[in-house]
């Protein structure tokens, strides 16, 4: 695992996993958590590739995906910006949460847990989370 | 016009009893950054020497942008030879002038920017340089060329880690969309592998494994891990 | 993006390459030990003057045969041809040199020309040295006259023109020899020596190269004669052939 900084962002890249997915995921998280503000300009593909020392095609691939998510928009001649609409980010976060929740529930069900079990485990986990 | 930068089919090259390349078949599309990887003696340098017309294959055909390799195709190729040195009596400044005179597509302004970026003193004589400084000089002579194919044979040998990082950064500015095709052989996989679009693993003069770098990572892990498992 | 189609044809400027090949590549030593080099040069000059004065004082010294001391110069340029070519490998620059986008004939022709120019430069220096030596001994011996001086120089010029005329051959042979040594054709080298020996034998058998200190003709000088012209033209053609052969060796038979 390797830490590389690009502007205000820090990326952790694992060379044994596809880099595009890691860059995409960590950008998504940064946007969802508000680490990059709404309407903020993000580094160009080339700048980002240079800071991360990865192939620009990889970065560009991730940027395209972000745009498809509705999280960024490219303004002609000015560069790429985080969307200035909070609704879009909110929609993405909810989508993401929904997706993760469904995955989680499906996983638990596959092991034969009932809804009550799942709720109990979630509460337990939350308790531990609070103590931490 | 060929869409392939490099094309080899059934290329065999022997040195005495040793087969450096064994019926090697390989196609490299334009604009890709390709890591040519493998243990010592796998045939990487031989492949590069064939692509630059330094040596001829015993069998098989080779094409660079659709032409047979030779001095004519070399105008399209920036080649960093393996274990190369620079003319000891030249200062870096003289080396740049040499390149401007003799190497097609050489961009002196880009070379100066690179020298500054790589922290290379242009007044220094190659004979007085450390191995790392000399390696940086030779690499910048290649990187400052606007040609469609770069062939870098072990460009990081003898270069310390901070300089390697800077060199990789300057490489990044050259590659990508509309950039040149780049073939790199290196043992410094950890730093170089994030640059690759594709990787080709050679073992005993044959392709042992090849594919898109991301696909290989998904299936087998990092290039470094693949190397280790291939050698087992 | 620049593609094969848009990248202009490129011509390597021949004389720039010759200038590059002509440059002394091992200047480091001379520069580092400048004081020593100067001291040795001064010592050589002193010995030279003392010797010249000594032989001149003994009397009856005829400086004319001193010209024949330059007999070894063509052999030296053979060595220069080898050295300057092999240096590309020895200095690790062969990869740069051989991937220049120029036909190999041009690369070899440039090396050949550079070696030839360096040889001419050395010839000129030696000529100057012998001229000074001859005139000095004549002056000290007290028989320096316009006619003796012009006789001495005339003989030098005759001999030198002969040397110069055959010089391209050893230069070309040196360059070819070096490329052979770097190629898979290395086993051919003894054959090259045999060919050289045969040529030498032919030349001396026909009395074209004839050195015999007792021969009275040698005391008075070598003269150009018409029958010498054809073998000389032959050496030039042969030099050209050797340069082309070296290019072919580099093109097809490199052991890289």
Automatic annotation (TrEMBL), chain A:
GO terms for molecular function: DNA binding; DNA-binding transcription factor activity. Coiled coil: none annotated. CDD domains: WHTH_GntR. Residues 17-85 form the HTH gntR-type domain. Keywords: DNA-binding, Transcription, Transcription regulation. It comes from the Bacteria. The keyword Transcription applies. This is GntR family transcriptional regulator. It comes from Alicyclobacillus macrosporangiidus.
From TrEMBL, chain B:
The keyword ATP-binding applies. It comes from Alicyclobacillus macrosporangiidus. Keywords: ATP-binding, Nucleotide-binding. This is ABC-2 type transport system ATP-binding protein. InterPro entries: AAA+_ATPase, ABC_transporter-like_ATP-bd, P-loop_NTPase. Residues 6-229 form the ABC transporter domain. Pfam families: ABC_tran. One of its GO terms (molecular function) is ATP binding.
From TrEMBL, chain C:
The keyword rRNA processing does not apply. The chain crosses the membrane at residues 33-54, 66-86, 120-139, 159-179, 191-209, 229-250. Keywords: Membrane, Transmembrane, Transmembrane helix. This is ABC-2 type transport system permease protein. It comes from Alicyclobacillus macrosporangiidus.
């Amino acid at each position: 695992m390797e830490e590389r900084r690009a502007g205000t962002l820090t990326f952790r890249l694992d060379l044994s996993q596809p880099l595009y997915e890691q860059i995409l995921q960590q950008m998504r998280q940064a946007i969802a958590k508000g680490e990059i503000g709404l309407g903020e300009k993000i580094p160009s593909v080339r700048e980002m590739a240079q800071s991360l020392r990865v192939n620009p095609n990889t970065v560009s691939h991730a940027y395209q995906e972000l745009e498809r998510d509705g999280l960024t928009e490219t303004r002609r001649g000015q560069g790429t910006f985080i969307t200035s609409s909070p609704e879009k980010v909110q929609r993405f976060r909810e989508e993401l949460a929904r997706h993760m929740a469904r995955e989680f529930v499906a996983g638990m069900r596959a092991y034969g847990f009932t809804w009550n079990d799942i709720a109990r485990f979630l509460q337990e986990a939350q308790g531990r989370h609070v103590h931490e | 016009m060929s869409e392939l930068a490099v094309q080899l089919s059934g290329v065999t090259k022997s040195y005495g009893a040793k087969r450096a390349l064994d019926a090697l078949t390989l196609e490299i599309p334009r604009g890709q950054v390709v890591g040519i990887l493998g243990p010592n003696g796998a045939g990487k340098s031989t492949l590069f020497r064939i692509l630059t017309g330094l040596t001829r294959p015993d069998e098989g055909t080779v094409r660079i942008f659709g032409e047979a390799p030779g001095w004519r195709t070399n105008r399209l190729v920036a080649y960093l030879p393996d274990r190369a040195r620079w003319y000891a009596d030249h200062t870096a400044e003289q080396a740049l002038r040499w390149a401007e005179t003799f190497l097609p597509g050489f961009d002196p302004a880009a070379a100066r920017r690179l020298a500054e970026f790589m922290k290379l003193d242009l007044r220094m004589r190659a004979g007085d340089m450390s191995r790392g400084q000399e390696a940086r000089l030779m690499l910048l002579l290649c990187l400052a060329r606007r040609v469609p194919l770069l062939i870098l044979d072990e460009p990081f040998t003898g270069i310390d880690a901070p300089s390697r990082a800077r060199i990789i950064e300057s490489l990044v500015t050259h590659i990508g969309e509309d950039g040149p095709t780049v073939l790199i052989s290196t043992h410094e996989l950890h730093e170089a592998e994030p640059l690759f679009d594709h990787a080709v693993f050679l073992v005993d003069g044959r392709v042992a494994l090849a594919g898109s770098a991301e696909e290989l990572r998904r299936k087998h892990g990092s290039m470094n891990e693949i190397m280790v498992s291939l050698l087992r | 993006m620049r593609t094969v189609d848009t990248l202009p044809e490129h011509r390597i400027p021949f004389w720039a390459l010759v200038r590059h090949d002509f440059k002394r590549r091992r200047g480091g030593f001379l520069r580092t030990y400048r004081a020593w080099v100067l001291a040795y040069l001064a010592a050589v000059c002193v010995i030279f003057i003392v010797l010249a004065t000594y032989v001149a004082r003994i009397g009856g010294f005829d400086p004319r045969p001193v010209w024949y001391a330059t007999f070894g110069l063509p052999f030296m340029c053979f060595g220069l041809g080898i050295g300057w070519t092999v240096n590309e490998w020895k200095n690790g620059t062969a990869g740069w040199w051989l991937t220049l986008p120029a036909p190999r004939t041009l690369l070899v022709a440039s090396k050949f020309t550079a070696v030839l120019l360096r040889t001419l430069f050395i010839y000129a220096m030696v000529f100057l040295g012998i001229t000074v030596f001859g005139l000095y001994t004549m002056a000290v011996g007290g028989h320096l006259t316009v006619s003796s001086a012009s006789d001495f120089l005339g003989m030098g010029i005759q001999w030198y023109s002969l040397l110069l005329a055959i010089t391209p051959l050893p230069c070309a042979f040196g360059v070819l020899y070096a490329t052979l040594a770097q190629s898979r054709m290395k086993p051919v080298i003894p054959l090259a020596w045999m060919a050289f020996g045969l040529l030498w034998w032919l030349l001396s058998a026909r009395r074209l190269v004839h050195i015999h200190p007792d021969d009275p003709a040698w005391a008075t000088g070598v003269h150009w004669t018409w029958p010498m012209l054809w073998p000389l033209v032959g050496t030039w053609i042969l030099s050209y052939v050797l340069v082309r052969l070296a290019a072919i060796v580099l093109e097809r038979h490199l052991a890289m």
